[in-house]
Amino acid sequence: MGSIVMKRAFSIYTNLYILHCMEKKGWIALDIDGTITLDKYSVPQEVTQYLRKKVQEGWSLLMTTGRPYTFASMALSQFDFPYFFSLQNGSLVMTMPSKKVLLKRDIPDHAIAFVEQAYHGIPSDFVIYAGYELGDFCYWRPRRFSPEELHYLEDVQKRQKESWKAVDVFEQLAPGHFPLIKCFGNEPRMKQVKKKLEETGKFQLAKIRDPFVEGCVILLVTDEKASKGNAFIEVLKKMGREGVIIAAGDDENDISLLNVADVKIAMHHAPESLQRVASFIAPPTRDLGIIQALEIVTR
After folding, report:
1. What is the pTM of this model?
2. How many C-alpha atoms does 87 have within 13 Å on its Cβ side?
3. Helix %, strand %, coil % of the chain (to 5)
4. What is the tens place of the pLDDT at every residue in 212-232?
5. Distances from the Cα of 299 to the Cαs of 18, 83, 98, 267, 292, in angstroms?
């Protein structure tokens, strides 16, 4: 706990004073991978018990991730208490355990052409998620990936326990909307694709590290209105913003989430871009740093 770095002390003490005075506790919004767990399929029992206690005390809880529902729900299988579930970088929000859809922001099918253009001259490809209603499977074009990339993507399919549907061209897809496009590669390649997509003004883009494979970068492409932060804002509008808003994350796609919060927590290993907007830097995830940070800001 002593390793937590305090920043912007005046702002934090003000927030803690507000928290103390409020009758309603407020909101806690947490990223999953790298923030509350380092495991693909589970959350430490201590973290689950702690969050259960916070919900019982009157805190509203939002769990947010770039994962699709099928993969994300494995990690939270022991969550037997109410929470809001923001998936695929804010493309879909559900109430749990009812699985009632609260918010949906999809990419229109005609926007895929802009991603195709961004890949012009790049010897690789992207994958398209079909959505929660269709079982979170992916459309992909195996012939466009190198043998090394195919090996990596086969591992992705296994670890996320997803079904991927191979197609020759994306024009074969039925007209519709898609929650998420994922691009995979090294840092220079993903920067190149991200820059081209930014120029279109059609998407929300978040470049993150693959938490399970060192050196691999994932570019999350969502509808221009879909991000972790925008999804959280919509939830607050629908459910009420009473109390103090706390958010925690560990990568660049959590910047928009932290920007919504009064108290912003970045994990110990988070990139500098996230740490710059944080109020607190939490201890390492392996040391249950999220519990230590939340203990301070929810007193």
Report:
1. 0.85
2. 30
3. 40, 25, 35
4. 888 899 999 999 999 999 999
5. 11, 21, 30, 19, 11
On average, the pLDDT of the chain sits at 90
Question: pLDDT tens digits for 35-65?
Answer: 999 998 999 999 999 999 999 999 999 999 9
Determine the Cα–Cα distance for residues 67 and 204; give it in Å rounded to an integer. 16
Minimal CA–CA distance to 173: which of 212, 127, 204? 127
- Report the CATH superfamily, name and number, of domain 5-104+227-297: HAD superfamily/HAD-like (3.40.50.1000)
Residue environment code for 201-236, b if the CB has 16+ CB neighbours within 10 A, otherwise e: ebbbbbbbbebeeeebbbbbbbbeebbbbbbbbbbb
CATH number assigned to the domain covering 107-223: 3.30.1240.10
- Report residue 197 CA to chain centroid gap: 20
**Any idea which residue has 């695929």 for tokens?**
88
User: What are 214's two structure tokens?
Assistant: 């060192």
Alpha-carbon dihedral sign for residues 42, 91, 132, 26:
positive
- C-alpha dihedral sign at 263, 283, 42, 251: positive
CA distance 260 to 203: 20
Domain with CATH 3.30.1240.10 in the chain: 107-223
Note the pLDDT tens digit of each residue in 106-152: 999 999 999 999 999 999 999 999 988 888 889 999 999 999 999 99
Residues in the chain: 299
